[in-house]
Amino acid sequence: MNVLSKFFGRGRQQPQVVRTTANSPYRIPKPVVGFVCVAPEHQALMDADKAAIGPIFSECRSSTSEVVPCHVLFLYCNVNEAGGLPGLDMRIRDFVKASGACIAIVASENSVEHYTPALKPGNGWPANIALVVDRRGTAFVQFYQKLFQAMKGGTSMLMAWVRLAPQNPNQDHAECPVSLMLAEAGHVAFGEST
Prior knowledge:
The chain is α/β, with parallel strands linked by helices. Helix content is 25%, strand content 24%. It is globular and about 40 Å long.
């Protein structure tokens, strides 16, 4: 699988293609997380997630209106029927590209029907993007804490995701948020190569 490597702080430049596998993921030595809330009604949700998940990362940034440079982006927004982000002139993919993130989570609940047009058109910036439909209360934070801890231990995001939420359409994982995952950046992990 290929992944486009993102060089922190240079998100708008053309990324370099790097071959990755589960055993040889693209590694982010000191991952920076960004929390951005563009819908005021989600501010308390963002603050709670930031307090619970932010300490896992080497640096935590946040904003209530602007893109923040980061490797992992948590975006709190409303997605309208046309797939747009009300009040902004960009879509989810554009926001992810502008941040330079290779992992993005739309952390506020939105309709599956709204997510489909929100991801079009593509913009040439692959990232692993999780789109939350139902946070399932505390399951959201617990899932992402476990996911990122596994990634800090060297497990690629895709392998950690499958271990936490085995991909079986006939099985419901009550301990996991209901999400759609676009695995376009491939195998990504945290920490130095071993």
